[in-house]
Amino acid sequence: MPELPFAKKSLGQHWLKDEDSLEAMCSAADVQKGDFVLEIGPGAGTLTSHLLAREARVRALEFDASLLTGLNQKFHAVLGKQLVIEQGDIRSYDYTLLPAHYKIVANIPYYLTSNLIQLLSESTNPPGTAVLLVQKEVAQRVAAAPGDMSLLSVTAQFYWDVSLGQLVPAELFLPPPKVDSQILVLKRKTKLLLPDSEVKGFFRLVKAGYGQRRKTLLNSLSGGLRLDKEQVKALCEMANIAPTRRPQTLSLEEWHNLYLVINT
Options 3.40.50.1980, 3.30.450.40, 3.30.420.140, 3.40.50.150; which CATH number does 9-188 get? Predict the structure, then answer.
């Protein structure tokens, strides 16, 4: 592998140098010839090379302007044809510029994960598939089952079919991070549990439930929704949910049922 650029700790840069792991990311996204792929943070261009080898059309968005010259030199033969490289911040990116059903494949800084999932979930033009290499513990939290759910996992699983891909040990990065990584696969659901007009209300309920995560639903919902405890107890029982349960034990379907009871 060619020499990699200096990684900036302040930007959470860790270059993945393992070819098998890079190929596993492309496979998890089922990147095919002609697919439009947004790569977030191409960095040294190692993942970019694998995407191009699969004959995808790639738009590479790099936050660190100091890396652009190296990327342009490395891929000069395909610039403007199969590849577009631009400087920018994914947190303020205009996703409407991209074609429908595009894919995202990216090795992202750990600190970006939660914010990015929320942005992609709420976008008016979300990707059909997003494959993100993230901290292992965060990937597993996003894919958590009832008992270990969080606001992040409820959000992700409301919008996406979530699955976990290959583990990527820390030593496969340069410099190695302090923890292992894992491939997180998000496939956009074709139909959501609720129409767009009701999504805000649904998450108002969920956020109220998780506002005091260690408390029971009776206490957290009473405080978060400003409802009398007897009223909360009755609503929970109508949804066949014990008011003594804690929010992390509820499934997405149970949150949905509770929302429907409250808004009937």
Answer: 3.40.50.150
